[in-house]
């Protein structure tokens, strides 16, 4: 990091400090007195505008990380230092709700800067959607929202959601059109598709996590769609509508809330758009195995699941999909599928132990892991065909699924009490993500170092 970078960081920090002070003065002396939500969103918008300048100011990621670290320290001081909290801290904390939105905001800036790798369009558009669409949706929903969405937690309205989609459309359409990377019709279709999908993501998000989910999903969608033809984009919108209708019709067969269904719809499209139909197989198989086998286990304590539960089930696979979009390595489909297989196995394990607490550990683990392995079969066949490759990939995936099931059984307390707290889902995400790397490691360690003809020869000799 150069001395010039340090000077630029100092300049931006002075601008942020000035902005906070001016907003605090407006909050205290404005006539009429502004609402806490308005002041918070003004900072939200202004921060986004400042963030848009980063690719033009810095070349490397290091200055952006330093700037973000200082800002996160400032946000922590606003929360925990009494004198700061009672002063400029009220710009963010005047709204009476729990949120980690400001920390997710800075994380998004860093991730977008790193992922875009100097592509100003891929950096700017997701940040613009975050800065403007989210703010306008909240303000319109607060002032004019009458039609409430049916969901638990913080109330959201149809008016606010429509405002988000409309604002996001212009945030995407105009820059994409001006970039000349696509035609007029294509830019319109990209704007419609991204706007609709990130709107559903925003509805599903909670606790300020939309400040992370919206820009990262916008980035993945934009990178996938900006080079598509009008026919491909139109078919994508048709797929989105079909997914929406399917998941809504599936509603009575699940215990997912409306926000969870919105999130599942968007994630399904993201997988289809970023990875193609092969990557849709694992989540589709998880849905089928759950409906046909796992959900048939008798339960007397069903609970309605919100979007955080869906997020916990896709977090590990989201990581592999994101890496795939950066590298185009088809081998990443294996750990992606292993995540869904492991999640299926863990869900089956929890339901079986809740329904029959006395079932022996070995039997519960084995039967649950077998259900998870069913998710892997179509993926292995598509990936390796009817060859030894497919059998080995299926074996690697099963090792990961079985390891995840064993680790979850060993570490999850109260397994027979249908655990549904944050600790359970954090534990599941951590275990599933960690064990999915085992499948990839085995793949690189065996299939990438030993040629398949040699293995076939060895099997023929053995026979």
Describe, in plain words, how this protein is organized in 3D:
78% of the residues lie in helices and 0% in strands. It starts with a helix and ends with a helix. It has 3 domains: 1-96, no CATH class; 134-274, no CATH class; 276-463, no CATH class. The chain contains 20 helices and no strands. It is mainly α and 463 residues long. Helix 4 runs antiparallel to helix 7 and helix 18 packs antiparallel against helix 19.
Structural class: mainly alpha
Number of domains: 3
The count of β-strands is 0
Low-confidence stretches: 452-459
End-to-end C-alpha gap: 62 Å
Task: Return the string of H and E elements.
Answer: HHHHHHHHHHHHHHHHHHHH
**Percent of residues in β-strands:** under 5%
General form: globular
**Count of helical regions:** 20
Q: Could you tell me the radius of gyration in angstroms?
A: 24 Å
Percent of residues in helical segments? over 70%
Structure at a glance:
With 463 residues, the chain is mainly alpha-helical.
Annotation keywords:
single chain, 3 domains
List the SSEs and their pairings:
Blueprint: H1 3-29, H2 36-52, H3 54-57, H4 61-80, H5 82-85, H6 90-93, H7 101-116, H8 120-144, H9 158-179, H10 184-204, H11 210-225, H12 230-249, H13 258-275, H14 277-292, H15 307-327, H16 333-355, H17 361-384, H18 388-411, H19 422-447, H20 452-462
Helix pairs in contact: 1-2, 1-4, 2-8, 4-7, 7-8, 7-11, 8-9, 8-11, 9-10, 10-11, 10-12, 10-13, 12-13, 13-14, 13-15, 14-16, 14-17, 15-16, 15-19, 16-17, 16-18, 16-19, 17-18, 18-19
């Amino acid at each position: 990091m150069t001395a010039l970078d340090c000077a630029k960081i100092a300049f931006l920090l002075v601008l942020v400090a000035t902005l906070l002070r001016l907003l605090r003065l407006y909050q205290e002396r404005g006539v009429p007195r502004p609402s806490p939500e308005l002041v918070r969103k003004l900072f939200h918008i202004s921060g986004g505008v400042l963030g848009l300048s980063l690719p033009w100011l810095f070349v490397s990621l290091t200055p952006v990380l330093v700037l973000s670290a200082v800002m996160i320290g400032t946000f922590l001081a606003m929360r925990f230092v009494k004198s700061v909290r009672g002063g400029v801290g009220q710009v963010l904390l005047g709204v009476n709700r729990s949120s980690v939105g400001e920390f997710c905001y800075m994380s998004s800036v860093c991730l977008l800067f790193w992922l875009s790798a100097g592509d100003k369009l891929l950096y700017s558009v997701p940040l613009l959607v975050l800065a403007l669409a989210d703010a306008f949706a909240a303000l319109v929903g607060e002032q004019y929202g009458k039609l409430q969405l049916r969901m638990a937690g913080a109330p959201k309205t149809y008016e606010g959601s429509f405002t988000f989609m409309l604002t996001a459309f212009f945030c995407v359409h105009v820059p994409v059109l001006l970039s000349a990377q696509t035609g007029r019709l294509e830019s319109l279709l990209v704007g419609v598709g991204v706007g609709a999908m990130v709107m559903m993501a925003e509805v599903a998000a909670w606790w300020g996590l939309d400040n992370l989910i919206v820009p990262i999903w916008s980035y993945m969608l934009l990178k996938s769609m900006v080079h598509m033809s009008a026919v491909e984009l139109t078919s994508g919108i048709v797929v989105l509508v079909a997914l929406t209708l399917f998941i809504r019709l599936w509603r009575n067969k699940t215990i997912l809330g409306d926000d969870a269904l919105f999130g599942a719809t968007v994630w399904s499209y993201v997988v289809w758009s970023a990875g193609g139909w092969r990557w849709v197989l694992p989540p589709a198989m998880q849905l089928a195995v759950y409906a046909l086998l796992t959900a048939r286990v008798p339960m007397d304590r069903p609970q309605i699941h919100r979007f955080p539960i869906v997020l916990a089930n896709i977090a590990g696979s989201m990581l592999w999909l994101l890496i795939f979009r950066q590298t185009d390595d088809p081998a990443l489909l294996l750990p992606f599928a292993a995540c869904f297989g492991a999640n299926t196995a863990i869900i089956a394990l929890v339901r079986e132990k809740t329904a029959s607490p006395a079932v022996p550990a070995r039997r519960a683990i084995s039967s649950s892991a077998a259900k998870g392995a069913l998710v892997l079969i179509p993926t292995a066949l598509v990936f390796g065909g009817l060859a030894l490759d497919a059998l080995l990939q299926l074996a690697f995936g099963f090792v990961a699924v079985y390891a995840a099931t064993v680790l979850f059984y060993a570490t999850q307390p109260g397994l027979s009490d249908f655990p549904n707290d944050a600790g359970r889902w954090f534990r599941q995400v951590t275990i599933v993500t960690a064990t999915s790397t085992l499948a990839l490691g085995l793949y690189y360690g065996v299939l990438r170092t030993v040629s398949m003809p040699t293995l076939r020869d060895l099997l023929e000799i053995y026979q």
